[in-house]
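# nightly structure sweep
# worker-07 picked up a monomer target from the shared queue
# config: single-sequence mode, recycle default, output format = structure tokens
# input follows
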Amino acid sequence: MKSATLKDLSWVTVQLVLLAALLWMPAYGLLPFLAPLRPLGLLVGFAGLVLSGAATWQLQAGRSLTPMPSPRAGAALLTSGLYRRVRHPVYSGLLVWALGMAIAAASGLHFVLFGLLWGFFHAKAAHEEKLLAQRFSGYPEYAARRARFFPSPFQPR
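# output follows
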């Protein structure tokens, strides 16, 4: 297995910082109208963790799991299970979790962090997809038929 590059480590470090900030930052810029929705936010967050966990399990079962954008040596292109619906279900689950955390915190700061995480995952996924297209000849065709994070009724099959 090739060792992680500094660029790979940088992507993972920023991701961990954003996720940790969503989890541990105190609520700032309280949004009182969201206070009644806090239990719903926790439920949404839990659902996101389940989705992300299921996608992670599927990657591990296929021996393709890595937090790095660069594909693992010997990894296979997954196009079944959750990957049949979207290209990055781990990120999808983490985004759902982050939205749940922002709702549960009822905090403007947490919604800003959610937006930053969304933008970060968009950039990381675009970078990762370039690497996947270099590794797997069928990736561009797969990507053209699947949404990046969330299924769309308008996406061709």
